[in-house]
Design brief:
This protein is α+β, with helices and mostly antiparallel strands. The protein is built from three helices and six strands. The longest helix is centred in the middle third of the chain and has 16 residues.
């Protein structure tokens, strides 16, 4: 529960927002194309990569009132025959860069994982665009 709060609070003000659509096959039947949306928010000091649908569902699940609201929304969609209206996660992966480290949030089944890695130094070299080094 606190994973979402940490990930959500890590990005205060973005200078750029990039939206991604990821297309992948349905693993149940191998035929249907599934689409997930991801967003990258970034400024000069920090960045956050996440699924807005997953963040919404995780946020609801992080409090008792939110869980009750999610259960009510699910029940209403089910009873109304609108199963596509049930809020569902479409990705479990969050990546937050703050300072000199990346923090990764993910899950597998019911298990939640958090791990950190240092940001690697990039060795940029400015050169003539006409020359190619091998």
């Amino acid at each position: 529960m606190c994973v979402v709060a940490i990930a959500a609070s890590a990005q205060q003000k973005a200078d750029i927002e990039v939206s991604y659509e990821a297309h992948h096959p349905n693993l149940r039947n191998g035929k249907d194309d599934l689409t997930s949306q991801y967003i990258l928010l970034a400024n000069s000091d920090e960045s956050k990569f996440y699924s807005p649908k997953t963040e919404y569902v995780d946020s609801l699940n992080s409090t008792p009132d939110g869980k009750a609201k999610l259960n009510e929304m699910t029940r209403n969609a089910y009873l109304g025959g609108k199963l596509d209206d049930i809020p569902r996660s479409d990705g479990s992966y969050y990546v937050v860069k703050s300072g000199n480290k990346y923090t990764y949030y993910d899950n597998s089944g019911l298990e939640k994982y958090v791990y950190e890695e240092p940001v690697a130094e990039l060795g940029w070299e400015i050169g003539d665009s006409m020359s190619i080094k091998h």
